[in-house]
Amino acid sequence: MNPATFVADLASLRFANAFNPYSDLCPDCDAEDAPAIRRRNLEAVLSAALERGVHSFWIARDLGYRGGRRTGLALTDEVHLPSHTELFGTAPLDRATKGPPVAERTATVVWRMLKAIEQPVFLWNVFPFHPHAPNEPLTNRCHTSAERIACKPLLNSLIEALRPKRVVAIGRDAQSALLDLDIEAVAVRHPSYGGQTEFIESLESLYHLRCQPENSHQLHLI
Question: Under 8 Å CB-to-CB from 163, ≥6 apart: which residues?
Fold first, then answer.
């Protein structure tokens, strides 16, 4: 796989009511060269993952408006860009937006577990863009079956190139979407909407982590 070609192919895709962070510019939040920054960041992460190898491939449903829409990196908000840098040892990843960094609840829990697991994990989404309601760009919606199928070749090429030992679906929606694409994955609860404790416990079991101290599942989230 050529990371630059993969990112260029990703940037070329267009869907109605979906923000492509690798080619689209948000007039309210983005810096002038935001799409180029996000392309560089993803290319750096993918290049490092291909060179180093990955243990697992975690895949959620879609990019969220507080996380991947802004960073171009799945399950990663701006607060955790330095953590993503450390994960694969890339050069520092740059912010593509204006104003103070924005945190996302899901990313907070995900990156806590990545730090505990201490394995190279590649993060992705079934639909690698931010789908939103019509005329409401800062909302989240579930992608459609047609959108999912259109992105299947990109997902397949990633899995084939990275050859992870384990594919983990983050949430029931992601699991169902992957089954629709004939991709098998171990499913864990999504950490949002009351699923935080179950998400943590599932990953502790899956990765054979030591039991956490009592009440450690309670995070202070922004």
Answer: 53, 54
pLDDT per residue over 199-209, tens digit each? 999 999 999 98
pTM over 0.70: yes
| Tally of CA atoms within 13 A in the half-sphere of 195 that contains its CB | 16
Residue type present at position 31: A
Distances (CA, A) of 140 to 52, 92, 220: 33, 28, 23
At the fourth CATH level, which superfamily is domain 3-206?
Answer: Uracil-DNA glycosylase-like domain (3.40.470.10)
- The bridge status of strand 186-188 relative to strand 166-170 is parallel
The residue count for the chain: 222
Q: What are the tokens at 83?
A: 């953590």
Q: Which amino acid is at 82?
A: P
Q: How far is 202 from 85, CA to CA, in rounded Å?
A: 25
Provide Rg for the chain, Cα atoms: 16
